[in-house]
Specification:
Elements lengths: L5 E5 L3 H12 L3 E5 L11 E3 L6 E3 L5 E2 L3 H9 L6 E4 L3 E5 L5 E5 L7 H8 L6 H20 L1 H4 L4 H7 L4 H16 L8 H11 L9 E4 L3 H15 L3 E3 L4 E6 L5 E6 L4 E3 L2 E4 L3 H7 L2 H4 L2 H4 L6 E11 L8 E4 L6 E4 H5 L8 E7 L10 H15 L8 E14 L5 H4 L10 E3 L12 H20 L1
Parallel strand pairs: 1-2, 1-14, 2-10, 7-16, 14-20
Antiparallel strand pairs: 3-4, 5-9, 6-9, 7-8, 11-12, 12-13, 15-18, 15-19, 16-17, 17-18
The structure holds flavin-adenine dinucleotide.
């Protein structure tokens, strides 16, 4: 017997699980169906059988301004599994021994960031002042002329703000690529402005770097499943949805799974990326302009290389590389707070917006990353590589291009009882965990409003 409070959610990533938890908290009975053998979507971890370490599909960093995500992590009982770096300290290497640090001051925001910029030695005094002015202008454009901003790419924007080549390469572009996951010539300046406003021009705590000291899956999947189970719901892995089936009044009546089962509910949330959604929509909905345009959303890849060395290679928790294809090095021993005797040098390297290299072979990618490491940290040549894993996420996130502004849909759909969630839904943010959790909360609120109404 299907009750008004029965909901089917398709997809157990951050969006689907946060929607599930928000609904369970309102007393809904939720079935979360997940295609893969475990929940976690694009933010998952697995145990490496050789080293015993937990390996994330890619290092994920949260920020203090991720309010919805931090509330969700708190709700699933994992806040103590996060490390907070309240005082931002990001070492940027521009060649061997050429290190400068973005270090915030203990001042109220945004003065803390102004001080960080004034201390950033990769820029000369004039460039620092110019970057600061550019930041203020950007904020003013975000407030008063958002329409113009949304027609510019990040590269157009820094042109308009007369930023030197050096300021672009050592300051603006590393932030833009890391937060938007695409090249500055593609990424929207409006999305960039939103990130800067939330993360760096707000309170001091908003710019905190936050990362899990456990594998990603351990951070949120188990806790979320337990809350969903408390109201009679469940999270089912290996449950592949093949079709949404229409019933009376043009509403969705049930989902059909690949194993032939059918599951009915009063409301449905599709918390999957757009190309997956288009595969299981009812046939007559695919042609509807609301859904048809979703096929035009494109994606951008991320490449991650995990490498285990026989000794520590750096003391820093993370280091940015400037001018090399490899962008970030994360020192997993420091981050995971591990004290293992064997393989003390466990490092993770990240290349975002990796369109140009994603199709290279794993051997080529490993060689490239090791070359960049040896160049930037010459002492690393002494360390012996024990093992390496190359993980490619070809469709890591929605491309934050100019077209995405008009293509991203909202939660409601033309089908009254079908709602959308996912990092790619229109939240005003780039496709991040925070966007995914906000979209999950919004979808849960829309279902609750419909049932209440
Ligand atoms: C390598 C990498 C690094 C990243 N780094 C960061 C970072 O540092 N900070 C940050 O904020 N964000 C980062 N992101 C982005 C972040 O991971 C995503 O924004 C977030 O995980 C998206 O969650 P989601 O729930 O929207 O989608 P997903 O995680 O993709 O969840 C969708 C789920 O739906 C399932 N599904 C699809 N089709 C079906 C079907 N037919 N039936 C059943 N289930 C189905 C999928 O298997 C998947 O589990 C990174 C992403 C990657 C890949």
């Amino acid at each position: 017997m299907i009750e008004a409070k029965d909901v089917v959610i398709i997809g157990a990533g951050f969006a689907g699980l946060s929607a599930g938890v928000a609904l369970a908290d309102k007393g809904f009975r939720v079935a979360v169906l997940e295609r893969k053998p475990m929940p976690g979507g694009r933010a998952y971890s697995f145990a490496d059988s050789d080293t015993g370490d937990f390996v994330d599909n890619g290092q994920h960093v949260l920020m203090g301004c991720y309010r919805a995500t931090l509330d969700f992590v708190e709700r699933v009982g994992s806040r103590d599994k996060l490390v907070f770096h309240l005082d931002l300290e990001i070492e940027m290497l521009d060649g061997p021994g050429k290190s400068a640090t973005v270090r915030t001051a203990r001042l109220p925001g945004p003065l803390h960031m102004a001080a960080a910029l004034m201390r950033y030695k990769h820029l000369n005094f004039r460039e620092r002042i110019s970057a600061m002015r550019a930041g203020m202008k950007l904020l003013a454009m975000h407030r008063h002329d958002y329409a113009s901003l949304s027609r510019l790419t990040v590269a157009d924007l820094v042109d308009k703000l007369s930023q030197s080549q050096r300021t672009r390469e050592t300051f603006w572009y590393p932030i833009a690529i890391a937060t938007l996951n695409d090249e500055p010539t593609v990424s929207s300046a409006a999305l960039f402005a939103e990130v800067l406003k939330r993360a760096f021009f707000g309170r001091r705590a908003d710019s905190a770097f936050v990362y899990p000291k456990v594998g990603l899956s351990e951070l949120y999947c188990k806790g979320a499943s337990e809350i969903i189970e408390q109201t009679g719901g469940f999270v089912e892995p290996r449950a592949i949805v093949e079709a949404l089936e229409l019933g009376e009044g043009g509403r969705i009546a049930s989902v059909r799974l690949r194993d032939g089962r059918r599951l009915g509910a009063s409301n449905f949330i599709a918390a999957v990326p757009p190309h997956h959604l288009l595969r299981f929509l009812p046939e007559n909905a695919v042609g509807d302009p609301f859904f048809a345009r979703l096929a035009d959303l494109s994606t951008s890849p991320i490449v991650c290389v995990h490498a285990w060395f026989d000794r520590p290679v750096t003391d820093s928790a993370f280091v940015g590389f400037i001018g090399t294809p490899t962008q970030w090095l994360f020192n997993k021993r420091r981050i995971f707070d591990l004290h293992g005797e064997s393989h003390p040098g466990y490092l993770s390297f990240v290349i975002s917006g990796a369109r140009k290299i994603v199709d290279n072979s794993n051997d080529e990618l490993l060689e490239m990353v090791l070359g960049d490491l040896h160049r930037m940290v010459p002492a690393s040549r002494e360390a012996k590589l024990i093992k390496a894993l190359v993980l490619k996420e070809k469709q890591a996130t929605m491309a934050p291009d100019l077209r995405s502004h008009e293509l991203r849909p909202r939660t409601d759909t033309p089908i009254a009882n079908l709602f959308l969630a996912g990092d790619w839904i229109q939240t005003g943010l780039p496709a991040t965990i925070e966007s995914a959790v906000i979209s999950g909360n919004n979808a849960a609120a829309a279902v609750a409003a419909r049932v209440g109404g």
